[in-house]
Amino acid sequence: MEAIPLNEQPPIFRTGNEGNPPAADTFQQNPQQKYLEAKPKALGVTQITLSVFLISMSLAGLATDMDEVKLSMTRISELIGSLIVIIAGTVAVAAQNLHLPTLRACFAMQVLACIVSLINIANTSMEQIGNFVHYDCRWNSTDNDLEQSPLCQKIMTVSLLYHGEGILIDMAVAAICVTLAAYCCKVMNC
């Protein structure tokens, strides 16, 4: 096998963007299209759907917690927060037209919705901690000995799962908000 002299090697074509992914050229040509890569319609509809589910959970909680003002206030804050997230999801879907003021509104609403979701996570967590402190599943038996009530333990387990579900949904909503806000920010160059 003979070595090919350096001056006889085939020419190497350089495009000027070695090391950059192909999407980098697309983004530099049309930055508004970057927002559409996030699938804002799907994420916005998901935000709306999860918020409707959270509203149903809050209404169920309000129906059962009417005697406790503190818990009712937590439920009302969850309702208001879910309505804000629904508005944010609607604006995210509307921002598909890539109109800059709509994208700015989408960014602002997603940041607000993320803050509201984090507040709801904190409220639900504190409510759950309060439930464990407030309700003790022990009762006096005939032997003056404290025993665990099996029914109370089951109720507390259901309560834990119920609140855990709410926290998980709020975390998903917060993640969607951060994703949409990041894509809006990329388009607006903030």
From TrEMBL:
Question: For the region Disordered, what residue ranges are annotated?
Answer: 1-22
Specify the superkingdom.
Answer: Eukaryota
Transmembrane domains' residue ranges: 42-64, 76-95, 102-122, 166-185
Q: Identify the keywords attached in UniProt to this record, alphabetized.
A: Membrane, Transmembrane, Transmembrane helix
Which named protein is this? Membrane-spanning 4-domains subfamily A member 4A-like
Which species is this UniProt entry from? Answer: Megalops atlanticus (Tarpon)
